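Posted in: Protein Modeling Q&A

I'm a second-year student putting together a small comparison for a lab meeting, and my supervisor asked me to include a predicted structure for Cytochrome P450 4A25. I've never done this before, so apologies if this is the wrong subforum. The sequence is pasted below exactly as I got it from our records. If anyone can share the structure token output, I'd also love a short note on what stands out.
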Amino acid sequence: MVSVPVVVVTIVTGYLIWKLLWFVVTYRKWDHIHNSTTPLGTRHPIYGTMHHYSDAESFLKHAMSRLEQTRAKMMSGWLFFLFPTFVVCHPDTAKLLLRSSEPKARRFSMVYRSFLPWLGDGLLVSDGPKWERNRKLLTPAFHFDILQPYVNTYNKVTDILLDKLWSESKSGQFVEVAGPVGLATLDTMLRCAFSYEGGVQVRGESHPYVRAVKELSRTCIRRTIRPWLFPDLVFYLTKEGRQFRSLTQYVHEFSSDIIKARRKSIETDPSQLKKRRLDFLDILLAARDETGTGMSDEDIRAEVDTFLFEGHDTTASAISWAIYALAKYPKEQEHLAAEVEEVIGTRTCVEWEDLSKLRYQSLFIKEVMRMYSPVPFVARCLTRPLVYGSTVIPPGFGVDILLVGIHHHPDVYPDHDTFRPERFADNVEEERDPYAFVPFSAGPRNCIGQNFALNEIKVVLTRLLRRFRVELDEDHKIVFLPDLVMRAKYGIKVKLCPR
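Accepted answer (user: helix_wrangler)
Welcome! Here is the predicted structure, written out as tokens:
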């Protein structure tokens, strides 16, 4: 009679042999796929292609260098020796994903997975029927009739921002603008989402919510490029993981307390919704699908947390780089200032009707977002094969869409390093592939809040140009840091001079 231990050993050995054979066969398939694309670099037997880059900054530098050398439309690397990773960086390949409804890459080892504990199943990371339902429920929150009153909020927030920058610059010194701009856009989000006026710009980095959001976003991107932190069991045993859990709990409580208080207030007096300006939270609480079912507090919290994070950080990046471009290109700045004077005259505040009249500023903002891509990349997880030429990537793989690569591809923009807003003039833009400029992504999963963001950017720039001339600190080093958004590693320094 065969003993139990022998049976167990036989089963385990057979399973391990089967897994080994499966891995060998699968690895050969992956290797074939990898070889049919442009490699990100030579492959190390252990580290794969990761020895070419150690962080997001060095990855971007390396990827853009390879793109310039090879003019590739799709590149691939290896995450250690285990499995390949894929990057699309040209309209021809990016559109295969962007015009589909492929879900965000949120499986094990994929980029959006690190957001889940913080942002939950909001629009950024959800998929399937839930994403479709919530996208439909949230769309009315960004209707023009809802966006129009927000212009008053943009003006109030910008007043505080400009006064703060001037107080630090009036003695003739250069001032770092990215930090204060980030606080201002978060202030805007909190006011528009919650009608919350908690002195974010006054308290600055000392505000606990500001500190929490900044550290959570940093941790998410660090975890993404550190494979040994992928497993939750490992991550939450680390000091960084424990801090992440604590900060996540804090931001959830911050949002949940406001949501519960607002829901109770509306239930007590429903008529108040007709008496005041609706904010994002009001609209979410009132939203109903075709069955009459609303969103749970957990769903609302996920959408609010997503709106606060995604809305303030990306917009802050765009505004910061726009200020940098104003200072770097003085002729563009004066052209824009003349347009502002023509549109708003001697008025101080920007009005809703002004936004559509700032036509050259629209071109300028587009060129800023092309040149400095506020969102460097997005990612998708394949549910069906991705076929491009002889390359067939099977379902289950994550594919990064390198938006900054598309915006600087030498075959799409031969003069990609030249700052030229005129390239977005109507007659020129009509000839360009619609997927050649995708700062807000594109297709069914594009950014639902892009008009909100563009309006805010216009108000801030118009108010800045109306009041100041901006000069660049030529001695300050600008290093691009592709965090969750495109940042300047050492900040952006300018001097403000009254007009």
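A couple of things worth pointing out for your meeting: The chain has one domain: 37-498. The mean pLDDT is 87.
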